[in-house]
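Priority: medium. Attachment 1 of 2:
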């Protein structure tokens, strides 16, 4: 009797596991949305924090949905004129390229897009002109 119950239990388990279907769940990462007005909240040069040493309050960059950007009160930045931008990959970007309006040459910056303290941040690292100076700006959207 016990043997028949064990066989019935094993048969039920086999039927249960055989009836399970495996479904692949595919999630597609959405494109990174950077449209809007961004301002600098933290800046460093060659690893040294320079946020309090300079007035960054007037600088901002506006990324438009059409792939253009506009600068206000430029300071040491990867570009000095308005123009267009492009992410290397809209879903998983690691760099952003800027092309000034009257130029055919694109310049690139590393691109990070973390959420810090509940707010989306944009981190850009670049060397404007002189390769011995590396700037890292943390921007937040207004």
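Attachment 2 of 2:
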């Amino acid at each position: 009797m016990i043997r028949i119950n064990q066989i019935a239990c094993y048969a039920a388990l086999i039927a249960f596991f055989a009836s399970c279907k495996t479904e692949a769940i595919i999630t597609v990462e959405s494109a990174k949305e950077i449209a809007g007005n961004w301002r600098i909240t933290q800046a460093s040069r060659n690893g040294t924090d320079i946020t309090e040493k300079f007035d960054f309050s007037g600088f901002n960059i506006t990324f438009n949905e059409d792939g253009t950007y506009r600068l206000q009160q430029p300071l040491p930045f990867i570009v000095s004129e308005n123009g267009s931008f492009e992410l290397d990959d809209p879903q998983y970007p690691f760099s952003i390229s800027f092309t000034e309006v009257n130029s055919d040459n694109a310049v690139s910056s590393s691109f990070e897009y973390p959420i810090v303290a509940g707010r989306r941040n944009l981190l850009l690292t670049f060397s404007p002109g002189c390769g011995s100076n590396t700037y890292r700006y943390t921007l937040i959207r207004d």
